[in-house]
Each structure stands twice: as structure tokens, then as C-alpha cells.
Write a structure and sequence with these properties.
0% strand, disordered C terminus, single chain, 2 domains, mainly alpha
Length: 357
């Protein structure tokens, strides 16, 4: 009877935890960007926190406050400026529709002259007029959501920095592994988050700068704005930066700049696109060696689940799935002891040969 009661308590507690966890997750979905952002910045700052508190013997509150200032200056201020620049561009379109309608009329006239299709038909004009107010509402909602998530990020980040090692140890104990494997999992998580949080923005900045140089050389309109858009386009798998420079080149061709448009297409295809491969190759040697397919499909999954922060946590989720499958195969199918789970096969063979000698 006692065994049945204990099992009842155990499974009832599990169901209660699961139900409450799902309910809390659903309610916290609007703040998911801020929560994941706080976790990402914590991983980037944890070593500094350890240095200040363990080596320099600072109070945790003082060290956390200093790192909060660093996070605001190094991470949040640049992101806020970029978001504000994009918002101002969208506001100009919303408040002054003629700024987009005038160039559109010019393009429509060129298309009508060369193809006979009238882009400014009544149905198309009605659809465009209906979209502009919705665009303004979307921008306003985005600003409010961004501001709330920034506040959530700062609030959660401070307490994550204060909790530090205790929080990590608690999470490690909850993992379904022994101490050695659990520590290895935590190191993998930190390494992958650092790799994505540093590597993806670095790749975006490099490609954006290279694209900006091309926009300036070939005289593209609004070169700086489209350079920033190219940075964001790098996170989109497969198509990437071509979503910016290809339509921009098409617009330049329709407005009469055929030569610069062709030059921009060649520059984008031969230089901007291949910069991605070169930078990724260099970063793979310095950071986590993540397979390109994991990154591509991870971004697809992450963007649909987590929004913008899915760029970092989508590949992490997929990488951890592969990692756990690998542990399951080695431990339960191959019967590999725990101490050999993470030793490369080449090292095991080499040690065996040395032992025979």
C-alpha cells in the first residue's frame, strides 16, 4: 500500500509540475525574447563575473551592476540604435506614403512601357493603401514589445548574475545524467551559445560591411540602410543577403542604372555571398565546430519558435538533440562506459596501441 501511495505521489507531482510548467510557459511567451536574451548575455558575461567575485573578491551585487552597465553599452545600445533606424524608415513610409508611391509610379511606368502590365491598377492601389496603416500598427506594437522585453532582459540578467554558479549547479543536477556527463552537457551548452551569440552577429557585421562597400561603389540609394538590412538578412538560411542586394539591383535596373545594377549583382554573387563561407570557416576553427546543416535547420526551427532569438537557440536546440542521441547510442546501444563517452575514437585507438607496445 505504501509503495502504491509513493508512486501516486511521485506521478501526481510530476503531472502537477508538467501542467504548471506548460501554463507558465504559455503565459511567458510574450517575454520569451527577453528571457532568452538574458540567458545569452549571461553566458557571455559569466567568466567576467567569476573573475570579479572569485579572483578580485568583489561583492556579487557590485560585480553584477558593473556587468549590467557593460551589457547595456556593448549589447543593448547598438541593438536599440539599429532598431530605431529601421523604425524611423518604416515611420517615414507610414506618415509620408508619397515617399514610396513616387518611386513606385516611376517603376510602374517603366514596367508598363517594357511589358505592357499596369502595376498601378485599381486593385493594386487599394491593396497598397490598406497595407500602409497595418504597417504602422505593426511598427508601434513592435516598439512596445521591444521595450518590454528589454526591461525583462535587464531584470532577469541581474538575478542570473547574482545567482551564478548556484543556478548552474541546480540546472546540472536536474539533468538526467551523472555528474561527469551533466557537467559536459553544461559545457556544451555554454560553448554553443557563445559560438552562436558571437559568431552569428560577427558574420552579419562582416557581410553587412562588405555589402555596404558594394552599395557605395555602385551608387545604390540608401546604402547605409540597406547595409544594415543585409546584416539582418544573413540570419535567413539559404537565401540570406540575396534578399537585399538582388531586389535592390532590380530596382536600379528599372530606374535606368543598368550597368551599376549588373555590377551589384556580380559583386553580391561573387563577393558578398562567398564572404559567408570564408568567415564561417575561420570561426569554426576558433569556436564550436557546428555542422552547417545543424545551423541552417536550427535557424528555421528557432525563428518559428522563439522569434529573433531563435537564431541562437534554434541551432542550440538541434545541436543538443544530436548530442543526446549520441550519448544514448554510445551508452545504451554500444555499452560505452561513461568515462569514454566523450573521448574520440582516434584517442582510444591510440591509447590501446600504446598499451600494447
Amino acid at each position: 500500500m505504501r509503495t502504491f501511495r509513493e508512486q501516486y505521489w511521485r506521478y501526481s507531482l510530476f503531472v502537477l509540475i508538467l501542467g504548471l510548467g506548460i501554463a507558465i510557459f504559455v503565459e511567458l511567451t510574450p517575454f520569451l525574447g527577453g528571457l532568452l536574451g538574458a540567458a545569452t548575455i549571461y553566458v557571455l558575461l559569466r567568466r567576467q563575473m567569476h573573475y570579479f567575485t572569485e579572483c578580485r573578491k568583489w561583492r556579487r551585487s557590485l560585480a553584477a551592476s558593473l556587468l549590467m552597465v557593460e551589457a547595456v553599452l556593448c549589447f543593448l545600445v547598438p541593438i536599440s540604435l539599429i532598431v530605431w533606424m529601421i523604425v524611423s524608415q518604416v515611420q517615414d513610409v507610414t506618415l509620408k506614403p508619397e515617399s514610396i508611391i513616387t518611386p513606385l509610379k516611376h517603376i510602374a511606368a517603366l514596367m508598363h512601357e517594357k511589358t505592357g502590365y499596369d502595376l498601378l491598377q485599381e486593385n493594386n492601389i487599394s491593396s497598397l493603401i490598406a497595407v500602409i496603416p497595418k504597417l504602422g500598427q505593426w511598427v508601434l506594437a513592435g516598439i512596445v514589445d521591444f521595450g518590454i522585453n528589454i526591461i525583462v532582459l535587464l531584470f532577469v540578467l541581474y538575478f542570473m548574475l547574482i545567482g551564478g554558479r548556484k543556478m548552474e549547479e541546480y540546472c546540472r543536477q536536474l539533468l538526467p545524467f551523472d555528474r561527469e556527463v551533466g557537467s559536459r552537457v553544461m559545457r556544451e551548452v555554454h560553448m554553443i551559445v557563445r559560438s552562436n551569440a558571437i559568431g552569428i552577429p560577427l558574420l552579419a557585421v562582416v557581410q553587412g560591411i562588405v555589402a555596404l562597400v558594394g552599395y557605395l561603389i555602385f551608387g545604390a540609394p540608401g546604402a547605409v540602410f540597406w547595409g544594415v538590412m543585409t546584416c539582418f538578412a544573413t540570419i535567413i538560411p539559404i537565401f540570406g543577403t540575396a534578399l537585399v542586394w538582388l531586389p535592390l539591383a532590380g530596382y536600379m535596373a528599372l530606374t535606368g542604372d543598368l550597368g551599376p545594377a549588373i555590377g551589384l549583382v556580380l559583386y553580391g554573387a561573387l563577393i558578398v555571398t562567398h564572404v559567408d563561407n570564408v568567415v564561417r570557416f575561420v570561426m569554426q576553427k576558433k569556436m564550436a565546430d557546428t555542422h552547417p546543416l545543424v545551423t541552417i535547420f536550427g535557424v528555421f526551427v528557432g525563428l518559428s519558435l522563439f522569434g529573433f532569438m531563435g537564431v541562437i537557440f534554434g541551432p542550440l536546440m538541434l545541436e543538443m538533440f544530436v548530442f543526446c542521441v549520441n550519448i544514448f547510442k554510445k551508452k545504451y546501444l554500444d555499452g560505452t562506459p561513461y568515462q569514454r563517452l566523450f573521448v574520440p575514437e582516434s584517442d582510444i585507438v591510440e591509447k590501446g596501441v600504446r598499451h600494447l607496445r
